[in-house]
Amino acid sequence: MGEPIRVAAYPDLATASASAAAAAARRLNVARCRVQGVGPDGEVWVMVVDAEAETLEDLDGGAAERHAASGRGSKLSRRMSVIPQRWWLVIGVAAVAVAGIAVVVIPRGVLPAPATGPIAEDEVPVPDAGQLPVSAPAGWDTYASWVIDSAKPGAAAILAGDDILVLADGADVIAVDAETGQERWRSGTSGDVTALYAPSGTDVIFAARSNTGVSVLDRKTGTVLTNGETTAQEIVLGDVPYAELPGQAAAVLLGTSWERRQVPATAVPVGTVDAGLVSVSVEQGNLWVTTSNNPVLPPAVPLQAPADGLKLSRTVAFVDGNLILAWADRFGPQTFTIDAVSAAGTLERVGTFDATGRSSGGASVDALSGLVGIGSLLLDVDSQTVTESEQGTVVASAGYGWTEQAGNNRVRIAPDGSTLPLRSSAVIPDVILPNGQAVVRAARGSDGNAYYVLEVQQPTETATPEPTPTDGKGQ
User: Is pTM, for the whole model, over 0.90?
Assistant: First the structure.
């Protein structure tokens, strides 16, 4: 069985049903197949869907009355018009998307037993793996365990606790059971969701809407607590989200409202610690933490070079209160440093590691796992260990580093240095579930996305060098 189908984008329920059934047939790669409609009173209808024409034929007493997807009137549409919208749902071998009558899409000649009555939305189970012949994205298993469609551009899936997987479908935020895929709630926001974040130890979920604001939702119910409207140059989610505003200004989201902060000249905001906004100026070699009590011009904190002759070259990343900086001399990058930043504006040097001869490419951050990909390096901020890849640039995501080697084979690198070769060009997952399955976001169809839940083989030990402590001695 599948998910409730939304009909808001269709003129009527019959049109929505025809479109959804045709989409399901196309996913099965069949031109025509039978479908079975079951109303809330147990009435059963047998119909035929034409995937190419997007039509349904109502086989009532042997008389096939064609209903086009344009919504022209027919016995089918008249019968459907009396069904309460909240009972419309689609069940079958592929999850389709609406809110109406139960429609089962099945191969010709194979009809299930009629349903005995309506199924409430919160009771709709997810198809088992054998009912979902959905091909997985490139580089993964032949079929997905389950899949949820979404609109582009989409947002990376996240875990809220161990039991809830949070996804985005256009302007909607969706919470599903992380083990079964059963939808728990769906809530609309005021714009397309482009990023999601669930602060640990809280009952809220942040949903960034490009650069127009951050919606705050209740984790348990999906209730939208605020849509946090703003006009920003960039919005960054974290335990305390912040927005970079025009004119050397920024704002932090405290509770359900934005609080303005000033950004010193030549500085840029890099993150938050508690309610303080951290800004860094590479040109001045200084750091500032602006707070509610001192939002305009707090004292500057000098950034200390790890050795004589080194100059601050760039800010690499800011992860869980840790500032990672790159230092160079006239020959190029020499050292990376890690400094713990407090809300009071104090710094503590907690680690250094060698940057000589290593890639100085852009950084990727997996904030929830405390991992940073820096060129060919994977840094575990918590343990302060570094693993160097021989296969190119490392992308930090889903608790691992992901890279490619010659021949476009992707390699997964664990923080402990063990690696797992994957198939050619395997799509990098958004998250790894507690049961070990990967959630992969990839294109589906001509203009859509989908979240695929896929099996991951167990890692095997390789000859990857052991990670090196960031003790300032290099590798």
Answer: no
